[in-house]
Amino acid sequence: MDTKAFKRSLHNSENYHRKGFGHEAEVATVLQSEYQSNLIQQIRDNNYRLQRGDVTIRLAEAFGFCWGVERAVAMAYETRKHFPTEQIWVTNEIIHNPSVNQRLREMQVEFIDVKEGNKDFSVVGAGDVVILPAFGATVGEMQLLNDKGCKIVDTTCPWVSKVWNTVEKHKKKNYTSLIHGKYKHEETIATSSFADKYLVVLNMAEAQYVCDYILNGGDKGEFMAKFSRACSDGFDPDTDLEQIGIANQTTMLKSETEQIGKLLERTMMQKYGPANLSEHFQSFNTICDATQERQDAMFNLVEEKLDLMVVIGGFNSSNTTHLQEIPIERGIISYHIDSADRIGPGNRIEHKPLGGDLQVADNWLPDGPIVVGITSGASTPDKVVEEAIAKIFELKSATAVVG
Ligand code: SF4
After folding, report:
1. Strand boundaries in 302-394, DSSP class E
2. What is the pLDDT of residue 353?
């Protein structure tokens, strides 16, 4: 399918909207009161530090809502205002944050159900308004909604679109897009829908496996079993790894995406010689600034003496999970929670360890003076961070001393 031509015609359609509807100011006031926090602003102004009694909070210097998410949420609110009576759907969670998604439900914005692994679009009718979330939607979904005569409000983050454009460039030159990401993540599913040939690698270990195969060949059956759900239909590792372009899920750990890019570059150089590299390998930087800033702030924070970390964000939020990896790798106790409700009652916390299921930790806040590092993922409103901090203070029965 000519995805480029389809997108061009979609963008020209009167049923397609990717800018706001002129209610920005009104919506900004509502968003401010619903999601922003005076306490968090106070901590920011106080050099990202707040001490109350025995508790010192150290906030990462970049955290929380990124502009892409803020933009998507604002557009969803504007959509409700602009279409007050229409049925409104979102093809997926607008962002990976339970409180924001709940708030939209209260505004009668419905989410498309997933049945047996597939989204059930049968509920969507002509004239309905359908919002595409910040991490995008597949070409197939866009086409289906367009054919149904829906009004499409596209909140796809421009950084994600940038990756899609990169994939289009790979396709034009008949390159395979090697995508660093999670093959089940909505953004990667959307990105791969723009590719002709693609292979998704999760980490360095998988990238190394692919590179070994490129250099030395190997067991094709084993390769295909390993990547059966992470490659394009009809993918053949013997012929489809001769020309590779790098793409990424925008929320992966930046250092890992870079390492994977370098590894592939070295491998292709070794196989085809430096003079021929440009005919076999392409790489553009498509890591979004927001992800990078949050990761860098986390690297700085874990250099400090922290007794523990609390990382706040949706459990299916990729960028939050990557933030959680950083303290864990340094041996700092870190609790990943998705809302302040996971804290208490009493000195307990329900949290999700990396790669594990939810579990409860008792007596998680030690006695005496403690320094608690806090960060939050790109889809977490400041209000949620404030609530978590308030719970921590409450648990330690702190009395307020700012400084
Ligand atoms: S994390 Fe980056 S790519 Fe994702 S929505 Fe935010 S700004 Fe856009």
Report:
1. 308-312, 334-337, 348-351, 359-362, 370-376
2. 97
For residue 159 and ligand 1, the question of a CB distance below 6 A is answered with yes
Separation of alpha carbons 315 and 313, rounded Å: 6
3-state secondary structure of 224: helix
**Pairwise CA distance, residues 280 & 272, whole Å:** 8
160 lines ligand 1 (CB under 6 A): yes
State the distance from the centre of ligand 1 to the C-alpha of 316, rounded, in angstroms: 15
pLDDT of res. 399: 39
- The model carries a pTM of 0.87
Tokens for 396?
A: 């330690």
Q: Are 89 and 111 in contact (CB under 8 A)?
A: yes
Across the range 158-182, mean pLDDT stands at 95
**Closest ligand 1 atom, residue 251 Cα:** 1
Q: 250: Cβ below 6 Å to ligand 1? A: yes
User: pLDDT: is 253 or 161 the higher one?
Assistant: 161
The single-letter code of the amino acid at 355 is G
Could you give the CA distance from residue 233 to residue 293 in angstroms, rounded to a whole number? Answer: 36
Better-scored residue on pLDDT, 67 or 309: 309
Mutation choice for ligand 1 from 251, 295, 376, CB with most ligand atoms inside 8 A: 251
